[in-house]
Amino acid sequence: MAVAGDLSGRRRGRLSADTTFRLILGLAGASVLLILAAMLISTTIQAWPVFQHEGWSFVTSSVWDPGTSRAEITGEYGALAFIVGTLTTSVIALVIAVPLAVGVALYITQAASRRVAAPLTYTIEMLAAVPSVVFGLWGLLFFVPTVLRPIMNLVVGTLGSFIPFLGGPIVTYNYFAAGVVLAFMVLPIIMAVTREVMANTPEAEISAAYGLGATRWEMMRHVVLPRARPGIIGATMLGLGRALGETIAVAMLIGGSQQIPSSLFRGGQSMAGIIAVTFQEAAPENVKALIGVGVLLFVITVIVNMAARLIVWMTGGHVAKEQNL
Fold it and tell me: Is the pTM value of this prediction over 0.70?
């Protein structure tokens, strides 16, 4: 009887500890949601006078003419040019970074020897530790005027005559320059996640592909890439989230214009960039407008992440069905 009582007491103790642990984990998860909700609510309240004054024109207009009033909204605030700048530079970055990241991940996991793969992995992932301002200065002082400017001249000379958004004249610091440097910044994130997913491809499926006479390229195409597809999409969306919120490097390289340009080789501005550049010297009503831009950026980032989760879920289910067949 005493032994049974001891066992029952231990079981109750374990159940109590499990319950307490689940409660702590639940509170930790809820705290993240509470922090995000508090950020969104507080910033929306501060920016509400601008939203109320501008209405939908805050999103659809590109006229940004700040006022100086402290008590009311007297200027015009249209963030469309900044939205276009943010999305354009982010898309340019992904178009460059995603194929490069997938190619590097395939090489590291499927083709390179360990002697080559380990240093290459460390080198690329080390780019994630480089501060944004260093990327910005490197692009501003060396990469864009020395390396990228001749490439932009070549593109305009060959494609600018029949592709309008690739036409001239060229401004040295522009959408394209900011997007290319941004690609180097999001590359380590996309590559690291993609490499990890590809490295977890089941060895049995790889061996089965070779046993059926597949070449290395056919094995990667029909086994590794389909298995890694949800991870690649998730990594791409993670890189997109980083690109959307990047501030200093983009602000230094995008050109600073507050208009929507007709070409990728003209200057513009991003949502994070306009906040960083003008916040310190902004008038009180302009501060509210900049907070409104931050709220809009927050909403866009949330939508991107929700879309990423949906795409990964749908793609993962599709891949699972293919594997079962």
Answer: yes
